[in-house]
Design a protein that fits this description.
By secondary structure, the protein is an alpha+beta fold. About 25% of the residues lie in helices and about 45% in strands. The longest helix is centred in the first third of the chain and has 22 residues.
Length: about 160
């Protein structure tokens, strides 16, 4: 069960609603509408001050009959493809499905004139080796820490055609 916590704070006569979400995904209308409002306001500001840009999301999912195999989620903005998520179910790994998903989303971006790609991956995941095979290079990294005391590396990678 997901938990939404709310609180308030006041500073200079401004009331702040503090909302925390204990999960990655939440079906709360309050949470989703609050995030949507924030995104729309920032996008409006960015359009006025940084220029108009296309922003759209792309989701590709793979199925073996009715069984989910894997998927990739990315977005195009500022003439870059940002890959947010890539996942393949364990029993389907090492069969080219991840490469296919990556190639498909890159292909969509290329058809739209996008020549710059960005993602980040953790050392506890497939890590950079998979993406380096597909032409990505590391441009930054940082340590990340889990609640149980483990330290991993978060790799920021890019590919430019």
């Amino acid at each position: 069960m997901k938990n939404i916590n709310t609180d308030t704070a006041v500073k200079n006569d401004i009331n702040f609603a503090i909302i925390t979400n204990d999960g990655f995904f939440n079906e709360s209308t309050d949470w989703n509408s609050s995030v949507e409002k924030l995104c729309k306001k920032l996008q409006h500001f960015n359009f006025q001050n940084g220029g108009i840009y296309e922003r759209r999301e792309i989701l590709i999912q793979g199925y073996d009959k009715d069984t989910f195999v894997g998927g990739i989620l990315g977005k195009i903005a500022y003439k870059w493809l940002y890959i947010d998520l890539l996942f393949v179910e364990e029993k389907y790994r090492k069969k080219g499905i991840g490469s296919s998903l990556l190639g498909q989303i890159e292909g969509i971006a290329i058809k739209e004139g996008i020549r710059h790609f960005h993602l980040n991956t953790g050392s506890f995941q497939v890590g950079p080796r998979f993406y380096e095979k597909h032409g990505y290079e590391i441009f930054a990294k940082r340590d990340i820490f889990t609640n149980d005391g483990k330290t991993h590396i978060d790799y920021f990678m890019k590919k430019e055609l």
